[in-house]
Specification:
membrane; Spore_V_AE; 82% helix; mainly alpha; Stage V sporulation protein AE; transmembrane helix; SpoVA
């Protein structure tokens, strides 16, 4: 049941992104920013945490989950470090994910052939 909930919630989030691409003039970059910002806002309002508890990876893997991780890390860092936590919390909480993205992007670049697409 856990896998089904994760699949349905994650799929719904991705379907919303696809609908935004298909039916609006928003660029993929703006949709990315919208989803991350939405994850931060919903976490700040206390609405995203119940979704994470319900769907697990279905809610934390999409881009809204990145916003959730940054907001949660910032809130925890503010409790521990005060005002400095505003600047360090989000980066510290998402550092592993960012490092993995950089590493795997580098590895993919080593094995792919770059070239002009025209």
């Amino acid at each position: 049941m856990e896998y089904l909930r994760a699949f349905l919630v994650g799929g719904a989030i991705c379907a919303v992104g696809q609908l935004l691409i298909d039916f609006t003039k928003l660029t993929p970059a703006r949709i990315l920013v919208l989803f991350v910002t939405l994850g931060v806002a919903l976490t700040g309002l206390g609405l995203y945490e119940p979704l994470v508890k319900f769907a697990g990876a279905g809610a934390t893997v999409p881009l809204t989950g990145f916003g959730y991780t940054m907001a949660k890390g910032t809130l925890e860092a503010i409790k521990e470090k005060g005002l400095v936590g505003i600047f360090s919390g989000g980066v510290a909480a998402s550092a592993a994910g960012i490092a993995a993205a950089v590493f795997f992007g580098y590895v993919a670049a080593l094995f792919s052939k770059s070239g002009d697409k025209s």
